[in-house]
Amino acid sequence: MTVKEVMSELKISGNESIKRIFLKHGAKEPFYGVKVEDLKKIQKRIKKDYQLSLDLYDTGNSDAMYLAGLIADEKKMTKANLNHWAKNAYWYMISEYTVPWIAAESNFGRELALDWIESKQENIASSGWATYSCLMALTPDENLNKSEIKLLLKRIEKEINKAQNRVKQTMNAFVIAVGGNVPELTELAIETGKRIGNVTIDMCGTACKTPYSPEYIDKLKKRGVIGKKKKTVRC
């Protein structure tokens, strides 16, 4: 498919209700408000297409940017591609999902995660924390740097209350990701979450809430999914 063909299909699939919801959360015109389930129908036909994903992302249309993440060929993505994506991920559905998914599945996941975490730019720093969370979901425990993860937990405990809004959100999610994906560090993540307490995030007047990490990790325990790795984090 060409960019023109995809954009025409996205326009037809637009949903005004979804569009209104996304606008409240930070999306900007022009976009159509396509449901993720409809984006996945297009993904199934395209599968992976490196160049098309780059071109769709560069439209700046949120629907097209999200679809770009679903069809991206992670092994062909360069650091330059991923840095470009992170820089231009203007709202959290892209900066905390699309970009981290592909970065984590690429050849540069850990390197970029650690680099982005240091950014003063909120969307890039949040992409960094989310990327590392994705890495823990994908990477076998024996290949994870546990000492580094412990240091990042300590850093979160120290910095989260003063962090930028979406950085706080992804830091909290990182604590949950450690507890859910690294059994050796589950209890440490719970204790860290207890010391942090409830995290307050500005959700732009919506009903969304940030989970209390110890309770969320406990739910994962009860479901018996602690330490179960994923083949992909795209969804």
A few lines on this structure:
By secondary structure, the protein is mainly alpha-helical. It has helices at residues 3-13, 16-25, 36-46, 50-57, 62-71, 79-88, 92-105, 109-117, 122-138, 146-159, 165-181, 186-196, 213-223. Helix content is 65%, strand content 0%.
Explained architecture:
The protein is mostly helical and 235 residues long. It folds into two domains: 1-73, no CATH class; 89-235, no CATH class. It contains 13 helices and no strands. It has helices at residues 3-13, 16-25, 36-46, 50-57, 62-71, 79-88, 92-105, 109-117, 122-138, 146-159, 165-181, 186-196, 213-223. Helix 5 (62-71) packs parallel to helix 7 and helix 7 (92-105) packs antiparallel against helix 8 (109-117). The radius of gyration is 18 Å and the shape is globular.
